[in-house]
Amino acid sequence: MQRRQALFLAGYDSTSFNNYARRDQLPVIAGNAEDNGSRYTNYSLDDAWRLRLHRDLIGNEPQSGVCGECGVSPAGAKAIVGNALSHSDGPLSIGDAFHAPTDIWIGVIVYQETYGPDPIRFTEWFKGEMAGVNDQITNALTKHSADYPRSTLEPVRIVTVNASRAARFVVQRAREFHLPEISEIEVARK
Questions:
Q1: Residues 78, 165: contact at Cβ < 8 Å?
Q2: In a 10 Å sphere around its CB, with 0-12 CB exposed, 13-18 middle and 19+ buried, how is residue 127 labelled?
Q3: Beta strands in the chain (DSSP E)
Q4: From CA 81, how far away is CA 26, in angstroms rounded?
Q5: Annotated domain spans of the chain
Q6: Rounded to whole angstroms, how far apart are CA atoms 57 and 52?
Q7: pTM value surpassing 0.85
Q8: E-strand spans in 14-151?
Q9: Tens of pLDDT along 3-30?
Q10: Tens digits of per-residue pLDDT, 52-101?
């Protein structure tokens, strides 16, 4: 599909897209050195979904009453979308998120380990049902205390986004426009 179609499906404006593309802050490929216009007509539903996830993480929605400062940076959103979707238990596609029986969330858990005067922070990517976040943290804390009994580990922050809601958003808009790419999602359901 064309770029303008992908941006519409994602609810993304071209000005923001172009700004983030120049800064390499998008979760999709913005083109290549050999063919600068290559990505104007070469987008997929998955690309539109990744852009919707990016948008949801950044925030700054134009609606009144929504906290415009409540999101993460564009570079942070790119990292979360890219890393969480390719989580170690296999990649997640728009079809997987759309057809999941319960909402699938992606995100990052930031931990702080303290042993001595200099604490360190590290991240762990998350992909699954929201209830799984607590399980993942509990497992990390249990494993850490068994492996490193003289240090402490604490979750500092969790940033998540609803991948299934983003998939429904994109698919609904694709249906409204009768885009042929929607058959990829419809066939996956059967």
A1: no
A2: buried
A3: 105-114, 120-128, 152-162
A4: 9
A5: 3-74+165-189
A6: 9
A7: yes
A8: 105-114, 120-128
A9: 899 999 999 999 999 999 899 999 986 5
A10: 999 999 986 655 455 556 789 999 999 999 999 887 677 899 999 999 99
